[in-house]
Fold each of these.
Amino acid sequence: MAEKNNILFDTDTFSKLNSFLKKGKYSRLIVLADSNTVTECYPILAKNCAAIQKADILEIDSGEAFKTLDTCKELWETLSEARVDKNSLLINVGGGVVTDIGGFVASVYKRGIDFIHIPTSLLAMADASVGGKCGVDLNSLKNQLGTITQAKGIFINSVFLGTLSQRHLANGIAEILKMGLIADAKLVKAMQDNKTELDTLIKKNVALKMAIVKKDPHDKGVRKILNFGHTAGHAIESCFMGTEDELLHGEAIAIGMLIESIIAFDKKMIKTNELQTVIDLIKPNYTVMEFSEAEQEKIKELMLHDKKNKNDTIRMSLITKIGACKFNVEVNVAQIQKAFKTYHLIIGA
Ligand SMILES: NC(=O)c1ccc[n+]([C@@H]2O[C@H](COP(=O)([O-])OP(=O)(O)OC[C@H]3O[C@@H](n4cnc5c(N)ncnc54)[C@H](O)[C@@H]3O)[C@@H](O)[C@H]2O)c1
Ligand SMILES: [Zn+2]
């Protein structure tokens, strides 16, 4: 059993979960799942972990559109009406949306009740369930409300990936790719070779993320390198949220990494061959969409939002080679605009 702090993974996670729940002396167990994970994942859990069978189940609609304060309010009301007390445990069974919402709901309810994560998507196993960040979107702005609160346990078992679509697998791969690009050239090489098992990629990603989070749990310094691809990526994700071109988080981050690598190249932080490596990893594997002038304008505004400094510059995390990243790099509007032009040339638009 690989154990990193409170993170457990292996085929043995269900029995570890069982003993955790039995030992925990919690007054109530509440499972939070979404409309997919309640049918695809909860039955697997209930079959393999007797202690979870006595949990009450709360179900939310699936998808980023429901990662809102309204969903949280409904959950808080339900918990309160059901007189769920401070010694209860919230068990989040789902992808990153469920772990983000569940962590936030638990960290605020009665000033904080314990919660654990049982991530079921690749993205949540490798990334979202780890590190303590939780929260919700505010209108079209991603993750504007939230806390950094650590789960009491994270039980990772890749058995759940059996029902995950190819699109959602690629979605999770994008975050693992990001980790390689910012922190581990060997991981990038392994992904290029495409021979490494998903379990190994998940473990590697979790270990790398935990090492960074431990150095800077409150996101004041080095943890910001995890935001590589996310300044542009979040803006792109927000721009298309609720439209027919809506992108998954990892899909938007993949495009974001390409645009931000172009900025790094223009700032002479990376060389041509390094930019080419990023292009080769992203262009064939993700939908690199074309952006109209109006969309580019909207994305640029979203990127500048609340991060604007003097002279219309923002601070970004940009790679300095394959496997290294620098945070707080100043980027101006002209550099962003130029990167969009180059991006369109690269994708052949
Ligand atoms: N807190 C963090 O550190 C962090 C890091 C990265 C991403 N995130 C957040 O994570 C979210 C994206 O996570 P996600 O991609 O997991 O989204 P998600 O939770 O919406 O899951 C994706 C879809 O897959 C379904 N699903 C999940 N597991 C399944 C399974 N085993 N079988 C079948 N269907 C399954 C879900 O119902 C959903 O429809 C975003 O909101 C992003 O902002 C948070
Ligand atoms: Zn992300």
Amino acid sequence: MRSRRSLIIRLGLCVLLGAITTWMVAWGLEIAAWAELLKPRVSTPSVSFTIDEPYFIELTRGENGIRAFETWRLLRLDVDGSLGDWARGLADEYLAQEEWQHATQPDRPPVRLDAEIISGPLRDGRATVTIKGHGLPSVLDTSTESRIYRTGVGWPLRSFLSDVVIDTSNGPQYHSLSWVTFSRTANTWKGPMSVALVLPLQPAWTGFALNTGFYGAFWTLPFIGLPLFKQHRRRRKGHCPHCNYDLKRDLEHGCPECGWGRGARASSESLHTPVD
Ligand SMILES: [Zn+2]
């Protein structure tokens, strides 16, 4: 009875250590990517876009074995001034690219993004919109330019996610549980997000559970496998499996030194004693 309880406690400990290892590995990989120790950060970046007047959306996706990211950029095309001109120029460039690709490589899959924009109510006098069907933060402020950085990191599966929404007029807002530490430049939110270290705290549940099992299995070696092996070896030598006291192969009668095997005998004997 006592050993079964201890086994359950040890199993629980292995699961807990597996979860902690999953978490530490994900953060370690994120830090390594941020410090540019992991190269390439992205093996196959792909860019797609859509124009849903008056909005222009650009999505850059990339991943390698341990890390995946999505960067959404949302621009308004009806803004006057240099930002509007720039946004319209960018949209025209994409449209020309699309036309060119269609003409020269008709078999290649389209770069158009399947995304729908839903305008929301004004919030503090600013327009808010949602990109539908992409599991993204529900509200984007589009007064100037908005960006969403979504990252998934972990090994062997991606186990933690972070969502960061950056509005060039408001600075960053963190839409998932993240621990944002420090950035390598002072004006993080103006530049590419790669300069800021965002440590994700939101589990990607499937990856988190499977990684926990994976690392937990390793933790069973010192906490379950090794003690079982030790016990087995002591038994074979005819010693007490609990305290290694030499029982001269008489394991039947338990151990006089630590009491191992005597509780069970006592309780089986007590079955024969009449109950008052
Ligand atoms: Zn003993």
